[in-house]
Amino acid sequence: MNILINTNTLKNSLHKITGVLSKNLSMPVISNVLIEKKKKQISITATNLEIQITVNADYLESDEFDPITVSGTKLYEIVRSLDNQNVQITTSKDNLVLKANTSSFKLSTLPAVKFPSFEEAKFLEEFTIKQTQLLDLLNKTSFSMLVDPDINFFLAGMLLVLAPNNLTAVTTDRHRLAISTTRLEKKQINNIECIVPRKAVLELIRILHGDGEAKARVGSNQMRVDFKDTSFISKLIDGKFPGSWRGVIPTTAAIEILLEKQNIRS
C-alpha cells in the first residue's frame, strides 16, 4: 500500500463512520476500519454488526493494494490532530505507517478476511428522496423513540411506513407519540412497514448532509441508504409495531388553535 491523500478528505470520511466503531474484546476487528481500493477512490468501512457505514474518499496517488483493517479511532485521532496537508500512508508487515510533514505514526493492522462485512441483501422496494427531506422526517419523530427497551424492544426504533407517494415515520415511548409524513415522487410502490433501530436512526441523522438526493432500499431484514459518497446499511428490528398508532391522533377537531411556534418554545 502506498497512498497519498489530503488530511481533510481523510478526516471527513473517518468522522462519518466513527459512531459505529465498537470496542469488543472478543472481536477486536470491529474496532477497526476496512480500507479498500475502488477504482479512483478508497473505501473506508466500519461496522458494529448491526450497522455498516462505507465512505468513499478521493486520493491523490495510490498503487494497487490488498484490503487491510486498522484501528478506526486511533487513525481518526491522528488525522484530526494534523493540519491541512497531504500525508502518505504505507504498510509494512503487520503495520500501517502514516507520514506527515514533520511526524510519522505506526498502527497495527489485522487481516481484512476477519472483517465482518454485511452480505448483499435482496431488497423489496426502493425510492429516491432528498437528504434534507429525509433528515427533516427523522428529526421530527426521533425524540420519542424508547431509550431503554424492556419487553417492548420494537419501540426502541422508528417505524417507517412506505405507501404510494408517501413515507411516514412513527415513534413512541409509551408516553409520547410522534408521526410525520413526507411526500415521495413514486406512485407505483409496494406498501411496506419496517422498524429501524434507534442507534441507526441517530447515526443517519448525524451523517446526512447537503441538498442532494438519497436512494433508499428496504428488504425483509435490512435497510440501505446511499447518498453522495456514503453507503449506510442497518439491520431491521424483527418485531411488530403496535397498529393502534393510527387511531391515536384525531384527524378532525371541533376547535382549532393557531399558535406561534416560537411563543410555545419560550
TrEMBL record:
Q: InterPro entries per the record? A: DNA_clamp_sf, DNA_polIII_beta, DNA_polIII_beta_cen, DNA_polIII_beta_N
What Pfam families does the record point to? DNA_pol3_beta (PF00712), DNA_pol3_beta_2 (PF02767)
One of the entry's Gene Ontology molecular-function terms is:
3'-5' exonuclease activity
Q: What GO CC annotations are associated with the protein?
A: cytoplasm; DNA polymerase III complex
Where is the DNA polymerase III beta sliding clamp central domain positioned along the sequence? 128-242
Q: Which GO terms describe its biological process?
A: DNA strand elongation involved in DNA replication
List the SMART domains: POL3Bc
- Please report the stretch or stretches of sequence annotated as the DNA polymerase III beta sliding clamp N-terminal domain: 1-117
Q: Known CDD domains for this protein?
A: beta_clamp (cd00140)
Keywords linked to the UniProt accession: Cytoplasm, DNA replication, DNA-binding, DNA-directed DNA polymerase, Nucleotidyltransferase, Transferase
**UniProt subcellular location:** Cytoplasm
Protein family per UniProt: Belongs to the beta sliding clamp family.
Output the PANTHER family linked to this UniProt entry: BETA SLIDING CLAMP, DNA POLYMERASE III SUBUNIT BETA
What is this protein called in UniProt?
Answer: DNA polymerase III beta sliding clamp central domain-containing protein
What lineage is this protein's organism placed in? unclassified sequences, metagenomes, ecological metagenomes
